[in-house]
Amino acid sequence: MRAIQYDTHGGPEVLREVTIPDPRCGPSDVLIEVRATAVNRLDALQRHGPGLLPGFTLPHVPGSDVAGVVAEVGSRVTTRSVGERVLVDPSLHCGVCLACERGDTTYCSGLQVVGGTRPGGYAELVAVPETHVHPVPAHIEFEEAAAVPTVYGLAWHALTVRGGLREGETLLVHGAGSGITIAAVQIAKRLGARVIVSSASDEKLARMTKLGVDATVNHATGDLAAQVRDATGGTGADIVLDHVGPALFQESLSALRLRGRLVFCGNTTGVVASFDVTDAYHRGLTLIGAEMYGYESFGQMLEWYRQADCEAVIDSVFPLAEAADAHRRLEGGEVFGKILLTI
């Protein structure tokens, strides 16, 4: 089969189109003809190196978010059939370790990630356990389906499972145009929350307004916390979703109301954050790390997405052979929504 692979770390130029053996469809597996796969930040970070996920090896075929058509099913598969339109939950738990037995699949000791620690969707075919293959309704295009798993899974878990977002609360989320920000906005609005988005780009903020956000703030041209207080009648946000890391960590805390909650789940601007400890405990703030979603959480998100009349925002679509250009687009800073590769 054709695939995009890299055997050394570096820039987008290390992504090469190659011919590799077709994946084997095991007894409990589903073999999928890939129609679309999303380009995620993880793809670029691991391409740059070093590999971030335990178990990552070279050579590597990226692509965690996969949508396509079932080409073959294993002898033990009972829930999927050849020709069915499907998408993949890329976080594959083993089901037998102590964490899995407790239902805590996020911390599975044998966890594998499609496109992260095992071959992914930058290819014509991918094999995945039946348990992690979900049907795609006929009205959803493959490109939209491939744009959903990671960003909506993370946003759903961060806001509903970890953050406990409630109707009537005010959410502040950074990074206008980011896939996870757009997902968070759609989730929060449909849960009845008020949403403020921050960015350094007025153009992207204007586009977020069209998606239904209640207020926008440009953190590059003014004090973020002061702007958030102005937008909330002086109280601050109930909850902040910070997926960018240290760059806005203290500003996020300062933008919270008394006893507000900071949910953080990203490190694109670094891995070490500093903040005013005294201010944080005096104001009763809660800092919540949002780990990767688990198996049950993903299923809840997917069921919600099907019923919530959402539509993932697509930035651009590239053919598989132009994966390097798709990575250049991702790293160029102008992306609004998800970048897709089609096969």
Automatic annotation (TrEMBL):
Residues in Enoyl reductase (ER) domain copies: 10-341
Molecular-function annotations in GO: oxidoreductase activity
Q: Does the keyword rRNA-binding apply?
A: no
| SMART domains reported for this sequence | PKS_ER
Which keywords appear in this protein's UniProt record, sorted alphabetically? NADP
Tell me the InterPro entries matching this sequence: ADH-like_C, ADH-like_N, ER, GroES-like_sf, NAD(P)-bd_dom_sf, Zinc-ADH_QOR/CCCR
Protein name, UniProt field: Alcohol dehydrogenase
